[in-house]
């Protein structure tokens, strides 16, 4: 299971349109996205150490038989969860490699011709081909349009006389959390942006300033 995204709720989710909650460890390091049910679980167990978001969401539960009042929990958009630092992976851990996040890392731009396209026209190109010992890792892959990928074939860029327009890199956890969630609130984006590596291409992207980018249409709160 992807450690950065929550498992889908088991039941039908009447509040499925609600944004995910950003979970931090107690040191304020971003960890993962939570469904509101999980956030409520942490609140109910008194596991929320502190909050850092601008948005609160109130969730209603059942009627208390003794008082006749309906229970509710108010959850913040950014919560620090007790014990998360021990229970989760290190901030420097390499996030999983998926095409969706790869294309977003590369801003949907082909690394060889510079054409910007939609995800279904793009491919994952192994800079050093797998047939030549290249690995399927962030540092050996770039986004390529289908014609460029076919033209390059099983060759390196040097062998194919095709120049890379940008270099690959490994997104850190904060950047990956931005890449893998299409519905990020402004306060969550501000928080994550402060943890994104200075070398990240996101800094040159409207993603961090709230503008529209291909495949990432809804970011503002
Ligand atoms: Zn191309």
Describe this structure in words.
Strand 1 and strand 2 (30-34) form a beta hairpin. The chain has 7 helices and 8 strands; from the N terminus they run E-E-H-E-E-E-E-H-H-E-E-H-H-H-H. 31% of the residues are buried. Strands 2-1-6-3 form a 4-stranded mixed sheet. Strands 4-5 form a two-stranded antiparallel sheet. It is elongated. It is α+β, with helices and mostly antiparallel strands. Mean pLDDT is 84; it is low at 8-15 and 211-221. It has 2 domains: 1-91 and 179-221, no CATH class; 99-160, DNA Binding (I), subunit A, CATH 1.10.30. Bound molecules: zinc ion (ZN). The site of zinc ion has 8 residues, from strand 8 and helix 4.
Compact overview of the structure:
With 221 residues, the chain is an alpha+beta fold. The protein contains seven helices and eight strands. Strand 1 and strand 2 form a beta hairpin.
